Each structure stands twice: as structure tokens, then as C-alpha cells.
Amino acid sequence: MNSRELKKQLRLEALARRDALSPQWRIERSFDMAALADSLDITPGTIVSGFWPIRSEVDIRPLMYALMDRGARLCLPAIINKTTIVFRELWRGAEMIDMGFGTYGPHESAEELDPAVMLVPLAAFDHLGDRIGYGAGFYDRAISKLHARNLHPRLIGIAFDCQLVPDVPAEDHDVRLHHLLSESGLRRFPLSL
């Protein structure tokens, strides 16, 4: 099995485990994660990208608002040209529009920002901080574009512990997470390669 096929299999298995969690349990754990906002060590004024949860993902909206209350400047990904994401500023009362894939983002009138910290959705992760996304490559391309501009955001994966897999077959374009926040707390990974 090649690495692409293995990633697909690991993704499906991890998402099946996540989907099997009860909605009430997921909501309670999402609030638990929001209570860990201080552990992320985000100083006031820091630009933090979050994401609008889809399907059985961790609902990070309580965490995003906890970070906003601590002075973080928030943004969400906005899909443009069906292949690229940019990060648009999010504030209370911001106009949200359908981005497809079951997610929402700020209207195009919102300012585009470069995040210093990215809360990254994922399907699966391993003990080294390698991640498997949903397969469309949006975050890989966005991170690559930031790196090309000499911007290196801190990457914090957001997941439930059940999404842990023994080993992610990393490819050249993959970027390791610096941290992962789950219901059991904040994990720190070795520096990205």
C-alpha cells in the first residue's frame, strides 16, 4: 500500500472513531478545551486562525471566544477559487458566508490577516506531530504560502484523542504540528523538520 492509500485508510478509521463519539460528550470536551486557553500561551494582539467546525470536529468556537476575551485577534479560513484559503478577520457580529464543505467564514469585506498561530483541523495525528488532513490540501498550501513569505506560524492541531494513529506516512510537502490540543490537554511535539 502506498503512502496516499495508507493515509486514506488511516483518515477513514480515525474519522469513524470520532464520529462514534456521542454529540453530548463532544460538546462537553469542547468546553473543557476552551478552559485550557491559557495553556496556549497566546499574548494579547496575537493573530490566531481558528476554523468553523464541521461534522464531528471539536467545536472550537468556545476556545476562539476565550482567546478573543484574552486579547487575541481572530481570523477564519475563507475558501477562494475552490483551491486556496486566505484568513479573514473574525469579530463578534461579523457577517459569515457559506464556504462550502459545511463550513462558514467571514465575508470578503473582512480584512485578510496573516496568522501567527494556527488552530488546525485534522483527521488524524501521530506522536511526532505529523497530521492527516481531509485530503484537499488547503492547509498544506496555505502554510506553504506563508513559509514562502518567511512567515512561520505556530501550528496547533485540534482533535480528540481517538484520532491518534501509530504513524502518519509523512510526505515532503507535509509540515509537522508544534502542538496538539485534545481533551487530555496540550501536547508538545519535537520541532518540525
UniProtKB/TrEMBL annotation:
**Enzyme Commission number(s):** 6.3.3.2
Which family does the record assign? Answer: Belongs to the 5-formyltetrahydrofolate cyclo-ligase family.
Q: Which protein, by its recorded name, is this?
A: 5-formyltetrahydrofolate cyclo-ligase
Q: Which InterPro entries match?
A: FTHF_cligase, FTHF_cligase-like_sf, NagB/RpiA_transferase-like
One GO molecular function term of this record is: 5-formyltetrahydrofolate cyclo-ligase activity
Species this chain originates from? Aquamicrobium zhengzhouense
Q: Name one Pfam family in it.
A: 5-FTHF_cyc-lig
User: Which keywords accompany this UniProt record?
Assistant: ATP-binding, Ligase, Magnesium, Metal-binding, Nucleotide-binding
> Source organism's superkingdom?
Bacteria
The reaction(s) annotated as catalysed by this protein in its Swiss-Prot or TrEMBL entry are:
(6S)-5-formyl-5,6,7,8-tetrahydrofolate + ATP = (6R)-5,10-methenyltetrahydrofolate + ADP + phosphate
User: Could you say which cofactors this protein requires?
Assistant: Mg(2+)
Name the top EC class: ligase
Q: Which Gene3D superfamilies match?
A: NagB/RpiA/CoA transferase-like (3.40.50.10420)
